[in-house]
Amino acid sequence: MSFSATKKVDLVIVIDTSNSMADEATALSEALNRAIEVATASCPSDLRVEFLGIEGQFKNSKFEQSVRSYLNTLGVAGNSLKGRVYNTAARAGAQEDVARAVEDVSQYFDWRDGAERNLFVLGDESLEGGDMVLNNARIEACNNAIKTAIAQSVKVHTYLGTPHESTPYPSDDDEQKMIVEYKRLALRTGGEHYIYTRGVADFTQVLKDTICAGLVPPAEAIAEKQAEADRLEGKTTATDSGAQNHQGSSICEQAPEIIRAVNTLAGILDKLVDACGPKGDAGSSGGCRCNDHDHSENAAPHRHVPPTATSEAQLQPTAPDFVDATLFTDGNWNNWQAGEVGHDFDMVDYPDNKTKGIYFKTAPGKPHAGVILQKSLSGLQPNCDYIFMIRTKRVIAKLTTPKLSLRVDGKDITDVVELTVKDQWVTLQGQFTAVASTAKLEVVSHENDSNGNDYHVGRLVIANPGNAALTL
């Protein structure tokens, strides 16, 4: 099927046809038309889509033809294909030969002249013959798929689904290794990866993202994703290596500056102890006297801290040192939880910052205005001031703009900030005074529309005003 607009994009969707993938086949088929409608508005293209099963089909879905039968109709001889024939491998393995399907479709599909070539493959086991454990043969099959796709200028987008309850991963380590393989196949060919080993995705959003990503030429996409792929495979990039070597060679030269900085910090800590010790400088019986704020109902609330230079007063320590930073390293949410409208999201990498973050995706038919992230924060000093900061950016350059704010204990501490520029990081921060040792923190969305209202939240930090952690 073909849908006209501007730049040509060919998208072949290939699925493992073992029984465990039936849910994904149905969901994909139902989501296609809406996904194309949304994608056409966000990133118009002359789109052609084909649905193919690996050595099989799914009834009541768009996967009505197999890879083999489709390529045969183009005149490709069966003995030219890498894919194994149905029922010639144990446990439906031929139907799960995702890597072989990548090679066959990349090489023999009737791609249109001048079209961007995209292949979206879905499976829930290994890329070679299924099973939940990797071995050298399965890794090599992935390597071969990558080489063939690159040679044919095909971007491969991957989806790893939830395994059938009868065949779980033997261990968490096996699951992580499988995730790496699906990500590796995508990144090395310039594609997108979708990992849903704990549920089924919102395929309207997945297809829309894939169609939009399909517009990017393979060479450009591969270069953009190289650093992430290198880290995934444990390789050190030239930039990282150079930085490490420079650090090693210059550490002695930096010694005087390091010593000076340590001495300065020691002086600040001495003053902090004097000011906030058991007696304080005035001999008071209390501990740290951060503020003498009036916390009555008539007191003016603290508003947001504008993104201007930090004032000299802010640089002075006003509370015992406190930092709560969430960079999502290794997928650690640091007790943050999705809020009432934090429905659909992916964990994504930010190679330049060496951190991760959350990609919030808005889907039709769901509410999107409300709390997207929330956390109960402890360890605060009552009567002391703190900064609550996040980094966020818009993902889609058209249609509705995301609008976010921050809230503490039910009170707004920032204005509503509109994210108007695609891929431009915005720092959203506000100041609050702790009224107890705990506080409820919330990141709030103020836009309910699902068209274009997608965004990333990359870093969340709570610290004393002027704390260096706020500039990380």
TrEMBL record:
The record, for InterPro entries, names:
vWFA_dom_sf
Q: Where is this region: Disordered?
A: 293-313
- What protein does this entry describe? VWFA domain-containing protein
**What organism is listed for this UniProt entry?**
Pantoea rwandensis
